[in-house]
Predict the structure.
Amino acid sequence: MQWFAENVWVVWLVLAGVLAITETLTLDLTLLMLASGALSGALVAVFVPGALWLQIAVALVVAVAMLMLLRPTLLARVRSAPGYRSSIDKMIGATGTAICDVTAGAGEIKVAGETWSARAMEGTIPAGTEIEVYQIDGPVAVVYPRHKPLP
């Protein structure tokens, strides 16, 4: 316990590392901002090892500031970069299969292993037909049979 009390900075550093590595799985910059807070907590722990309350306070203030000030700016820059396509944009033109009959009112499709609500551009698409996504309308994919011309 004595070692832990004298080396709290190591715990903060490990926490920052785990958060930063986990960020590579999410890619939404939230965990990276929290990692910066943990890193600042480690820095305070090096200079003021006995003040756990101060370390926590600094870590929280830095993490919240990064989340509120830096993260929105970084996300805006990433999303406005040339060549960026959101996952919704990537769905347009994707191919899949009709799970059940898809009508102009309702249906279900499977695209890239994901099940989506869908509606046909016109007519009825039988279950098992290969489809292509024409557009995304809210939570519904608008589709047409892949091997037929667009209506």
